[in-house]
Specification:
The protein has about 80 residues and is mainly α. About 80% of the residues lie in helices and about 0% in strands. The protein has 3 helices and no strands. Helix 1 packs antiparallel against helix 2.
Length: about 80
């Protein structure tokens, strides 16, 4: 499997979620939402790989996707 930004971000999210779930108190995400997030990121990675075969373009597209999702998440969190 080729290393892509979505794979890297998925690994970081999984490590962060697992370490947070070991702590007492409120966790930032439940197991169900974590499973949905994992499936979504894997599906998006597969779709990006199907759309483009050029590795450089794949990296640019996935980094842009991560940036847009991050910005939208911050905006949504600040609204609510």
């Amino acid at each position: 499997m080729k290393l892509t930004p979505l794979n890297i971000s998925l690994a970081c999210i999984l490590v962060w979620a697992i370490t947070e779930m070991g702590e007492e108190g409120q966790t930032f995400i439940s197991w169900g939402w974590l499973a949905i997030l994992v499936v979504f990121l894997i599906a998006m990675d597969i779709l990006f790989r199907l759309w483009t075969k050029d590795v450089k373009r794949l990296w640019i597209m996935q980094l842009g996707f991560i940036l847009v999702v991050g910005i939208i998440s911050i905006v949504i969190k600040s609204i609510f």
